[in-house]
Design brief:
The complex is a heterodimer of chains A (414) and B (92). With 414 residues, chain A is an alpha/beta fold. Chain A folds into 3 domains: 2-57, no CATH class; 80-245, no CATH class; 276-407, no CATH class. Chain A is 35% helix and 15% strand. Chain A has 17 helices and 15 strands. Chain A has a 4-stranded mixed β-sheet with strand order 7-6-8-15. In chain A, strands 9-14-10-13 form a 4-stranded mixed β-sheet. In chain A, a hairpin with a 4-residue loop joins β4 (120-124) and β5 (129-132). In chain A, α6 crosses α7 and α12 (288-299) crosses α15. Chain A is flat. Chain B is α/β, with parallel strands linked by helices and 92 residues long. Chain B has a 3-stranded parallel β-sheet, sandwiched between helices. Chain B is elongated, with a radius of gyration of 17 Å. The termini of chain B are far apart. Classes of the chains: A alpha/beta (414), B alpha/beta (92). At the A-B interface, β1, α1, α2, α3 and β3 of A face β1, α1 and β4 of B. β1 of chain A pairs parallel with β4 of chain B.
């Protein structure tokens, strides 16, 4: 049987259902058990022991209602205003208006990619939903995407379903992460995926629609609904849409796709389980070392998952900072290594309870270490990701990740 | 109007729950700690109380590589071989 806290019961039920065992007993104690003295946590055991004993020694009750199995078409209100409310009642929306995914619109969307409608692109956790080309297309229609956007969305769905991305965790964690989609290659310009000014903000239909199509697919097909299976404590705005293109024209270095072994001229998506961007303001530095100092100072934070879980924190350099960082002949690797060496969190800046917890997860970094020990922001300098995006101005962004997730790059096939 | 269902179907295959024992007399109880703060504390207290009330023979604890990472197949096999019932922890 499964033990959990009452706050998290919808997630526990979704997980047992996805494993084909909806009747597996789940017994809960009042939330929280973490963040309180151990004796207080232990005291929550006595009131539930009889329930646990019963759960282990008697036949389970009938399974509680799972999410609708879904299959085929659904009858929806004709009136567009009523339709919006109806979508929200079903937990299929994100709060913004959606376009009704009629058969005609979904067929038109599917024409944007050469896939059969029933082709399974991925199985999406936690629900183990079949992300067929058609199901993804329906969510893309809802998101306001155009058929030409669909190949990017399909590649992003494939990428997040890769085991190394750890979608199960990214979908259900209390951490605010959302998949950041980074587009490389000629498709970005052709579709108008913004790589320049206000790249993380509003204004470009491709950024908004592709990002939103992925998010709706993950919520609806993957079965991660806020407050139920999606346990984000606070979340972040990137859970509406989080899609950018790398500004390859303004970068002094090779694009991310080429760095990862794809031929220049090939279009790719890379997905990262990311927090929102943290601004790095540097109006003074004129040398690579100066940019490194400010970037490293912004990146060395006590509240990041990366310092104890590893993973790949991302630096998005604005073009002006990138030009300064590459002056004196610095390569992207030189810059990554320099930031990694400078961006350190002395253990003394962490509380003893947190160090104790980190030590159980990553003993080599935290167990029995003196308080001056400087913890790096990633296990290895090669794990620091660097891309160039944005317009004019002396700003860059630091984007930590969930930690227990690896970025994945996939070719976009049209 | 008719729309295409945006949630589609689930591939979750129905499985059969293992039969429950009539009582915990002489049973070994497995605890699977998901390494969230105080998960082990709560599990072990529940395990100790179950053993005392239900007459279980033993309580053993196993761990996982991290809260968001599944237990290894080897650990699952060990638990299945050693214990009659298992308590696992979910989320926070």
């Amino acid at each position: 049987m499964v033990l959990g806290t009452d706050e998290f019961i919808p997630l526990a039920r979704a997980q047992v259902a996805a494993r084909g065992l909806p009747a597996l007993p789940v017994v809960t104690v009042p939330h929280p058990i973490g963040g309180i003295p151990a004796a207080a946590a232990a005291a929550k055991a006595e009131p539930i022991v009889e329930s646990v004993l019963r759960a282990l020694t008697s036949d389970p009750a009938a399974a509680s209602e799972a999410m609708s199995s879904g299959a085929g078409d659904v009858e929806a209100p004709d009136d567009l205003d009523r339709f919006q409310a109806w979508v929200m009642e079903r937990g299929w929306g994100d709060g913004l208006p959606v376009i009704p995914p009629t058969r005609e619109r979904v067929a038109a969307m599917l024409a944007g990619a050469r896939r059969r409608p029933e082709e399974i692109v991925a199985l999406l956790v936690p629900r183990l939903g079949r992300a067929t080309a058609e199901a993804i297309a329906a969510n893309a229609v809802m998101a306001g995407a155009l058929p030409e956007h669909l190949p990017v969305v399909l590649a992003a769905v494939e990428a997040v379903a890769d085991a190394s991305f750890n979608l199960q965790a990214v979908q259900t964690t209390t951490h605010p992460c959302s998949p950041l989609v980074i587009v490389n290659g000629p498709i970005a310009k052709r579709l108008g995926v913004n790589a320049g000014g206000n790249v993380f903000g509003q204004g470009a239909r491709a950024n908004a629609a592709i990002g939103r199509a992925l998010r709706l697919t993950l919520q609806n097909v993957g079965g991660a609904r806020p407050g139920k299976e999606d346990r984000a404590t606070q979340g972040q705005p990137g859970k509406y849409a989080y899609c950018i293109a790398e500004n390859e024209a303004a970068s002094p270095w090779e694009p991310l796709s080429v760095e990862r072994g794809f031929p220049s001229g090939e279009s790719t998506v890379t997905v990262c389980g990311s927090e929102g961007p943290h601004n790095i303001n540097d109006h003074g530095s004129t040398t690579p070392e100066g940019i490194v100092t400010t970037v490293a100072g912004t990146a060395a934070i006590a509240g990041s998952n990366n310092i104890y879980l590893g993973g790949e924190p991302l630096i998005v350099l604005g073009p002006e900072h990138a030009a300064t960082a590459a002056s004196s002949g610095w390569s992207k690797g030189d810059f990554k290594r320099a930031v990694w060496e400078r961006a350190r969190v002395p253990l003394g800046r962490l509380t003893p309870e947190n160090i104790e917890r980190f030590a159980t997860i990553y003993p080599e970094g935290f167990k029995g270490k003196p308080s001056e020990t400087p913890a790096p922001i990633a296990r290895d300098w090669r794990d620091v990701m660097v891309i160039v995006a944005g317009g004019a101005g002396k700003h860059s962004a630091f984007v930590p990740t969930f930690g227990a997730t690896r970025s994945v790059t996939r070719r976009i096939t049209e | 109007m008719r729309i295409v269902d945006p949630i589609g179907t689930s591939a979750a295959a129905a499985k059969t729950l293992a039969l429950r024992p009539r009582s915990l007399e002489g049973v070994t109880i497995a605890l699977l700690d998901n390494s969230k703060p105080n998960a082990g504390v709560l599990l072990e207290r529940v395990g100790a109380l179950l053993a005392a009330r239900g007459g279980a023979r033993a309580v053993r604890t196993w761990g996982k590589p991290g809260s968001s990472i599944a237990a290894t197949p080897a650990v699952i096999e060990e638990i299945a071989a050693a214990a009659r019932v298992a308590l696992t922890a979910s989320a926070d």
